[in-house]
Amino acid sequence: MTIVPKFGPAFTLENAEAKGLDQLKRQAEHCTRCDLYKNATQLVFGEGPPTAEIVLVGEQPGDREDLAGKPFVGPAGRLLDQCLKEAGLDRSRCYVTNAVKHFKFELRGKRRMHSKPNAGEIQRCAWWLGAELDILQPKLVVALGATALYSLLGAKVKVTAERGHVLQPANHPPVLVTIHPSYLLRIRDEEDARANREHFVQDLAKAVAFQVG
C-alpha cells in the first residue's frame, strides 16, 4: 500500500452527530448545503448493509438514479454489477454511494444531460460521505473515478497515476483507486472497450481480499 499523508474533505470533516445510516439519510433529505437540490428530483443516498466491509463511491446520481432514488441503477450501474460479479465481489454485501448526492444536469431539449459537479459542490457534499464512512467503518473504500477520489483524498491524488493502487490515508480506511464504469460506456472501439473492461475487473478484484467470509 502507498501511504497518503493528506486526504480530502470526506475524511477531514467531523461527523460525530450521526447515529446511524437511517437517521443520516433522513437528515440528508433536507440538505441545502449547495444548490443542486433545487433541480434534482430527490436525494440519492447510499445503499447497502450496515455491516458492509467494502464501500463503493461513485461521482453523482445519473438520470435513472435521480428518478429511482437509488444509486447505480442506470447503464453504468448495470455494467458495474456485471464487473463486480466477474471480479468475485458480491454487490449485495457492499455499500454503494456517491460523492455527490443530487443529480447535476443540463437540459438539452427534453433530455437531462450529466454535468460534472464542481469543487465547491463536492466539498459541501463530502460531509455526508464522511458521515457514511464514520458509521460504516469499512475495511476498504473503492474510489470510482476522479470525483470520488477528489472527495476522499483531495486534488493532488490522480486516477491516472494511482489507478489499481490501494492507498492508505492516515487513520482512515484504505482506498482502492479505479475508473468510473461510465467511462467504459463511452468507448466506441470494440477491442479498446474489451481491454478497458478487463482492466477494470482486474482493479475490482483487488478488493476481494477485503470482503471476508
From TrEMBL:
Superkingdom of origin: Bacteria
SMART domains: UDG, UreE_C
Signal peptide: none
Xref: Gene3D superfamilies: Uracil-DNA glycosylase-like domain
Gene Ontology molecular function: any one: deaminated base DNA N-glycosylase activity
Domain Uracil-DNA glycosylase-like, first and last residues per copy: 45-205
Keywords assigned: 4Fe-4S, DNA damage, DNA repair, Glycosidase, Hydrolase, Iron, Iron-sulfur, Metal-binding, Plasmid
SUPFAM superfamilies from the UniProt entry: Uracil-DNA glycosylase-like (SSF52141)
InterPro entries linked: UDG_Type-4/5, Ura-DNA_glyco_family4, Uracil-DNA_glycosylase-like, Uracil-DNA_glycosylase-like_sf
GO process terms (BP): DNA repair
Family the entry assigns: Belongs to the uracil-DNA glycosylase (UDG) superfamily. Type 4 (UDGa) family.
PANTHER family: TYPE-4 URACIL-DNA GLYCOSYLASE, TYPE-5 URACIL-DNA GLYCOSYLASE
Name of the protein: Type-4 uracil-DNA glycosylase
